[in-house]
């Protein structure tokens, strides 16, 4: 788990000129791609959402505090090309508690328990503050695993299987290659001081399970 300086502040806009190849927002000239990232954030404009909806079938929905993520419209505004693997360094209840705490400043999209059950706390379309790096937050889906880096017994067969099905679905949804460049540990995020998932996480086994799960791991 990781606090980050990537807060929920939104850009102030004084004008928006649409219909051409560029738009002016707050005095800055923006191209069509940037405009696509911003239009829905204007007052009164927001992508429709369904309360309690999950992106992975069977996941339990427990919403994180809005202070721990930024509303977005991924992948339309930010391309998603990474999955970041975390370890909670604590139990399930404590992870959920801090992700629901607005003072914590961080939360992941998903939490996977030792029995393989999945809880979703942030929609994938939103930017979770989980990686400690703004660019990685915007481009990735964060998955926490209940346990401790130094305890190999944390990573059960059921956890590997449940997490692999989840990651397979995420990768299929966004066209993410299932390899170590695109499925990474928190320790590999630039500038982090975290070590998770640590030396006991079996990457070869995990990626093999993700590939085996494939696109049929769960519906979009």
Description:
By secondary structure, the chain is of the alpha/beta class. It is 23% helix and 16% strand. The protein has one domain (60-217): Peptidoglycan recognition protein-like (Lysozyme-like), CATH 3.40.80.10. The protein contains 5 helices and 10 strands. The strands form 3 sheets. The protein has a 6-stranded mixed β-sheet with strand order 3-7-6-9-5-10, sandwiched between helices. A two-stranded antiparallel sheet has the order 1-2. A two-stranded antiparallel sheet has the order 4-8. It catalyses: Hydrolyzes the link between N-acetylmuramoyl residues and L-amino acid residues in certain cell-wall glycopeptides. Keywords: Cell wall biogenesis/degradation, Hydrolase. It is an enzyme of class 3 (hydrolase).
